[in-house]
Fold:
Amino acid sequence: MRIKKQFIKLAIILSSIILIISSLNNIIISEDNDIVQNDLLNKNDEDNNLISPKSSGSWTLTSIYIDDSGGAGDGNWSWAEAQDWCVKVDGVYILENITLIGSFGIGIRIANSIESFRIKNCTILQKQTGIRFDSVSNGEIRNCYIKSSYLTWDSVGIYLQNSDNNNISDNIIEFILDGYFYFSSGLKGIRGYNSDNLDINGNVINGPSTGIDIYDSINSFLTDNTISSCVIGIGCGYVQHTEISFNQIFGEAWCGIELYDNNNNLTIEANFIVETDTGISIYETHNSLFKDNILIDNEEGFGTIWYYGGGPPCENNTYINNLIINSVKNEQFKDKSKTISSYDPSILYGVLIITSGLITIIILKKWKVLGKKK
Structure:
């Protein structure tokens, strides 16, 4: 990553602030007086490279399978409520403080359910798939920690299939990959298939080939996620009326955001994408808004997806106030964004500091480029 001389001066001025506010491995995003802190990866330590999960382990199991149709699994929600690890509060079933370890397969699977339920503060280790929903609505997955190095070509941290109106928030998903699996397109941190009205927010994802992938989806929100060490940060195909905003995507990727097939009416806004081959790759995406995205040290800021050979033209897209910094190739989109090759960090009201391979980023969201989150 290229370091500008201006960073050195600002680094000295801000060093005392950084020591107080953050540890060396933090991304800090400050919006006015609110500070949200996400620990980044320490690539030198596989066993301690994400935020430590909250205390979990009141129950240690190998798997849970709830099928509310009664046709499969361990039992329905009435059966689950009778177990020590499930409680119903104000009409909501809660699975909390459960640890599921090993034995491959799926950690928690819910099927054929419209009941309101919450999976919270669970730890799932060494599973092919951490949590899976099949034909499920009104579910929430929050503050869970999913980690595995026991992978197949189609391993997924959280998988939603035919499942509408679900919330996936503030989870940590980490894959420890063998080199043979790195380019497998089946490895997903979060995967939504034929699932509408999803709220995927505030998750930290490291290591799968694709951080978040949604396919055949309408009216979803992908916001405030932090994604690193993936081939593709966020991927979308056959997606409509969906917002992708305020995500942070870092390095070692072909594409920060890949819009790969028949997308319509998307809002791609205020994403922060650093050091990928292409910040935002676009193919067959129409009637969409690209606004206030910041693309730094990518080989190209915006681009077409190379393995489709350019493909058919994208129509009726709008580009407003995107900022491309230090990108080699921008010819196709040079009239749609502000492109600069040398910049003072004060332009961004923020600073990027590299120290011994560890990244500390401070962004003040009072700035014009990002604006305020809706």
Observations:
- The first strand starts at residue 26 and ends at 31.
- The first helix runs from residue 5 to 21.
